[in-house]
Amino acid sequence: MLQELVSQERSKISKQLKFLNLAYEPEDAQILKRALLKRCIFGVDLNPFAVELARLSLWMDSFIFGTPLSFIEHHVQHGNSLMGASVQDFINFNATEASQDDLFVENLGARFDDLRSVMQSLDAMRDTTAEEVEQSKALWKNDIAPKLNLLSRALSFVCTGRAMQAEGKFKEWEALKKTPNILSQLFDESTKKSAALKQVEAYAARYHFFHFEVAFPEAFAGGKRGFDIIVGNPPWDKTKFADTDFFPQYHSNYRSLKNTEKAAVQKRLLLSPHIAEAYEAAQRDMAVADDYYTAASPLNKGAGDGNLFRLFVERNLGLLVHGGNLSYVLPSALMFEEGSTILRKHIFRHCQIPFFYSFENRNSLFSGVDSRYKFALMQIVNTPPSTEAGQPDAVIDTAFYVLDPTELDRPERHVPYSLATVKALSPEHCALMELRDGSDLPILKKCYAAFPALSESWLNFRRELHMTDDKDLFVEQAATGLLPLYEGKMIWQYSHVFDTPQYWLNADAFDKRMHSKELHRMAQDLGVPKTEIAKHSDAVRYDREFMRIGFRTVARDTDERTLIFSLLPKNSGSGHSMFLNTPKTYALNAEGHVIVQAVSPLRLLFALAWFNSVPMDWLARQMIQINVSQTYLYRLPMPQPTDEEIRSNPAYAQLAKNALLLTLAAPSPQVWNDFCELAPLFNVHKKDVPMTAKAQDVLRAENDQLVAKAYGITPSELAHMLASFKVMANKRPEYVALLE
Fold it and tell me: 203 exposed, middle or buried (CB, 10 Å; 0-12, 13-18, 19+)?
């Protein structure tokens, strides 16, 4: 059949080439590509310029001398593919509205069949001659566009309701859907439009609703329910509005300014009416879109802010036929991060992943993307994995830390990753580990078999203040009595004096801000209704009254170290670039009084040593990319001993003591005063503190070896771990040599 098609097209093209006196013989592949372009290629983009570029690229790629440009406007269209409705959505809406007339719903199927039929007639035109192209344009303008516009308006009515509800305009939506004869109006072909229709069309124009069944009816004809192949590179943006995304277009260095400077820039810029209007519109539209996406995307209800790439994965999986495949370039985070857990579980349960190749951008494969960012080339096939006994386990062909696509030509860069391994190493999150080679797997399995994952009941973490939401608390000049505000960049392993504070806090204002949170926490701990907790407010103790361990949230798996933990002194606060452990819980004693149960300093020191060890860091690097959060820590295997078990286990006690000594060795005279109350735990005196880098490295190395031994890691396996710490090897070769 294809040979016949090519032969017919070649005959037409040859006649035109002869007429134009062109000595040119197109290859069969070129002819076939041009013939199939109009039948098989579909596309949509929210950016009109991108739509025009796509059309131009397709025309150039399929161009043959002597032929006109094919009519492809109907297959490459403008719209928001995340905001749309299906025919079934329209039918479901009508079914829930008892007052509506079913007449047009019953005829809806016939209307779509008619649209599909005429669209298939358009696709059948090969546009080999100028006359055929003109026929295509006429068919589109006279027969297709009018039908498409009416059906699109009907589905946009459903989307208008969703958008109105996302805007909080519930009364307006109730009034609109109860408009007399609204269904008749939606399918009214007259040019006179009611207020209701104008409202629907205004929402469609504002949000660019895109309905796949209407726009591309051929893909849903004859019982077919979508596309065989979907390829793309979806947006990688968050769905929530941020000042840092808006103001840099007017003030280039906005992101690097201090909070007071940002506030001044905002105030100045917003005095311009057009900027203020754009600012309000951007906030409103982003909030509405985020609510719309959340309601329409059940697989994206994970932790953290929404991200467009996840929404596109969910949307396009729903557009695949059975056996169809989705091939995407997207952030690698899909297979690692907490926010993708629900979507990831769905993929593993209902689909197969032939390959997943994770790239680093250090060589600027994407020139406009941060060099620290990781992205992946992956394919998802809409076919469930086999669950029959005796069938081979599903296997993903993976590669991680790829710098150049040519690396994939080398067999040793590929690591087979079975579904059974996913379940063994990440049973709760179904996350992949970033393996540098196949020898990582046996070590990982050994570590995960040695200890359970960290439990929140043993050590919990949370953020304290937000650098934007709580900026009114921040004082920019140090003064007596003010408390330091710690940020992630201010700490290093075992050191809380790695950098100086940029902001300080007034203790009373800080406590006042945290008071309601403490009452809420007390109510949760005691199981008491919030309405009854006020009588216990005198028992509130603030987190700042306790020593805590904290970690940086921004730390890449390719940096010198990824897990960066430090002990923080009492009377300090922290911004959201750090997580701190929850230092206490509330309980009721026998007399019914509220008491505070603090996390012991001994536990904190043991945890500090374990988290800062090379083996634990290596484990974390298998899943962390740019941001560290407490959810990643809860996946890591580690011992969780009681204080008595720490004291009675020589290795555990030594780890805790070494952590204290390394903390006291931080280069600042204030450190001893900050933590001297911990010295009696191990009978430590000032003279015991290691003051030279070599002495400190000996303690660090001892900790690394104790942790490795606890996991059952052999010297050769520890050497394998160390090989992945390339930055540390360059910066501190003497320490790596000490461990080896």
Answer: buried
Instruction: Give yes or no: residues 545 and 652 share one domain.
Output: yes
Same domain, yes or no: 371 and 247: yes
Total domain count, the chain: 3
Three-class secondary structure of residue 70 per DSSP: coil
Residues 269, 177, single domain; the answer is: no
Q: Do residues 242 and 209 make contact, with C-beta atoms less than 8 angstroms apart? A: no
Average pLDDT of the residues in 145-168: 87
Q: For the domain that residue 427 is a member of, what is the CATH number? A: 3.40.50
CB-based contacts of 651, cutoff 8 Å, min separation 6: 706, 709, 710
Instruction: State the Cα–Cα distance between residues 709 and 707, nearest whole angstrom.
Output: 5
User: Residue 667 is inside which H or E element, if any?
Assistant: none
Position 433, amino acid: M
What is the Cα–Cα distance from 630 to 304, expressed in whole angstroms? 12
Contact 344, 430 (CB under 8 A): yes
Distances (CA, A) of 563 to 42, 208, 278: 45, 44, 41
Asked if residue 704 lies in contact with residue 693, where contact means CB atoms within 8 angstroms, the answer is no
Nearest alpha carbon to residue 31 among 127, 158, 155:
127
Look up residue 428 and give its two tokens: 């709760």
- Distance CA(551)–CA(563), nearest Å, equals 7
CA pair distance 428, 623, nearest whole angstrom: 14
Q: 738: which 2 tokens?
A: 């000490």
Mapped onto helix, strand or coil, the DSSP state of residue 552 is strand
Count of other CB atoms within 10 angstroms of residue 446: 15
Q: Pairing state of beta strands 395-402 and 415-418?
A: antiparallel
Residues 133, 150, single domain; the answer is: yes
207 with 240, same domain: the answer is no
pLDDT digits (tens, 9 = 90+) for 423-449: 989 988 999 999 988 899 999 999 999
Q: What's this model's pTM, rounded to 2 decimal places?
A: 0.79
Domain that includes residue 256, residue range: 230-438
Is 305 contained in some domain? yes
pLDDT tens per residue across span 686-714: 999 999 999 999 999 999 999 999 999 99
566-585 CB burial, b ≥16 within 10 A, e <16: bbbbebbbbbbbbbbbbbbb
Strand intervals (E) in 487-564: 503-505, 548-552
Is 247 domain-assigned? yes
Q: What is the mean pLDDT of the chain?
A: 88
Residue keyed to tokens 């104790």: 706
Query: Is 168 within a domain?
Result: yes
Domain shared by 678 and 585, yes or no: yes
In a domain, 8, yes or no: no
What is the spatial distance between Cα 136 and Cα 119, in angstroms, rounded to a whole number?
A: 10
Q: Give me Rg for the CA atoms of the chain.
A: 31
Q: Residue 611: name the closest of 672, 685, 662, 681 by CA.
A: 662
